[in-house]
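Re: that backbone. Tokens:
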């Protein structure tokens, strides 16, 4: 296909940001700007059996691939549709058995290589940006990132070289992995559980802001971009690349580390929410600045431990009570200085809530959710998926604990956000409406 562009928008050179996307007409809050099918995608291993490998539909009556017996599908049509991509994994999984364990990034890159071999023209995912135009930032990679890429390349050769003839040369692979690391997306469900990884070239064209005017949600394996602020003709369209809970300096560090730029958006310039996000406990003797900084460093170290736990679900499976104790001890220590609505306290409460959910401690999970949801509503931008997912989790917990009135109230609050972020016709919205209707 030719470069047809995205209706109502245009690619342009964004001041101090390189290329970007801007509006050619007015977009109202909740309006769909565009939908982008994934150029390539992969379902995460942990969701196998719960979601269709091809369309990501969540259902209970999936049937498995007859060869590898690890991939699941809605029907024969989905299996056939996925076969061009699944066949290289199917053969490898049969060959390696339980020893088949490439990372999600390696699996995604393998699929991209296969897609590039059979696709010669611009795809529907590349109306304004080609995948080969992705920034790689190779000149900015440190030794740690370089080691990760080298390990991924080694894994690609180990698991796929027998099944993909003539893999690209080393330099090409280094650049491809770097491009995917900088431009890849994680597909999530309505409660922000990780479903898989994908590349959406047109979505990747949008630049970042900590006060974004659009939000990206997913319908199956397609990304949908909707306005969460009024957007006027000539205005740049901004997405958010990161979790916006944290204060300015944290966000800047994360963006520089992962995306190699220093954010200069309005929120980073004014730091308007930092004071509320960094609430300090009211004490008779206020803590010294050095004590606060020391506690911030402690909090960041704890957060980094969780972030680096790549096999978190396995750790959770083996040591749930120890993880919960770690969360509680960190809250106790930080609580000597930080207020309950401090974002570092909220982070550990969120981790603790996740462990409680895993342990089926519904009362414990509900207790943490009740402490989290209101501060989230203050710290996050309007129509935040983080706020919606928290109300959704709380609502479902309330209903499970037979607290009908509170459950319906929480679900309605989630629904109000989801109808803007996901669109009124999304199947997640229909599911929540059905849950509310069942309580009447």
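Recovered sequence:
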């Amino acid at each position: 296909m030719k470069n047809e562009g995205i209706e109502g928008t245009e690619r342009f050179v964004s001041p101090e940001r390189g290329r970007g996307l801007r509006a050619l007409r007015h977009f109202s809050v909740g309006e769909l700007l565009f939908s982008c099918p994934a150029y390539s995608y992969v379902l995460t291993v942990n969701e196998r059996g719960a979601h269709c490998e091809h369309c990501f539909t969540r259902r209970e009556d999936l049937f498995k691939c007859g060869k590898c017996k690890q991939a699941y599908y809605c029907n024969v049509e989905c299996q056939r549709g996925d076969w061009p991509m699944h066949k290289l994994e199917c053969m490898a999984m049969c060959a390696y058995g339980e020893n088949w364990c490439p990372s999600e990034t390696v699996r995604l890159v393998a699929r991209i290589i296969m897609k590039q071999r059979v696709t010669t023209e611009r795809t529907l995912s590349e109306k304004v940006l080609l995948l080969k135009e992705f920034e790689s930032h190779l000149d900015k990679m440190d030794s740690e990132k370089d080691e990760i890429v080298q390990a991924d390349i080694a894994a690609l050769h180990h698991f796929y070289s027998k099944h993909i003839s003539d893999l690209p040369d080393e330099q090409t692979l280094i650049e491809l992995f770097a491009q995917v690391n900088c431009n890849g997306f994680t597909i999530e469900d309505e409660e922000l559980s990780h479903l898989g990884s994908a590349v959406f070239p047109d979505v990747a064209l949008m630049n970042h802001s900590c006060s974004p005017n659009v939000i990206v949600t997913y319908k199956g394996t397609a990304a949908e971009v909707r306005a969460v602020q009024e957007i006027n003709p000539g205005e740049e369209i901004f997405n958010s690349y990161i979790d916006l809970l944290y204060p300015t300096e944290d966000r800047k560090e994360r963006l520089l580390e992962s995306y190699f730029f220093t954010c200069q958006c309005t929120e980073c310039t004014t730091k308007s929410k930092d004071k509320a996000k960094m609430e300090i406990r009211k004490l008779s003797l206020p803590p010294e600045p050095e004590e606060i900084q020391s506690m911030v460093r402690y909090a960041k170290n704890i957060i980094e431990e969780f972030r680096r736990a790549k096999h978190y679900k396995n750790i959770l499976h083996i040591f749930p009570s120890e993880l919960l104790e770690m969360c509680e001890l960190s809250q106790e220590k930080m609580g000597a200085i930080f207020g309950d609505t401090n974002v570092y306290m909220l982070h550990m409460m969120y981790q603790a809530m996740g462990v409680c959910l895993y342990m089926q401690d519904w009362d414990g999970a509900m207790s943490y959710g009740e402490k989290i949801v209101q501060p989230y509503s203050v710290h996050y931008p309007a129509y935040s998926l983080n706020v919606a997912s928290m109300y959704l989790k709380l609502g479902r917990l309330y209903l499970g604990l037979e607290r009908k009135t509170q459950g319906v109230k929480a679900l309605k609050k989630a629904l109000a956000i989801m109808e803007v972020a996901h669109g009124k016709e999304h199947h997640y919205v229909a599911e929540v409406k059905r849950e509310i209707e069942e309580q009447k």
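The first strand starts at residue 9 and ends at 14. The chain is about 50% helix and 10% strand.
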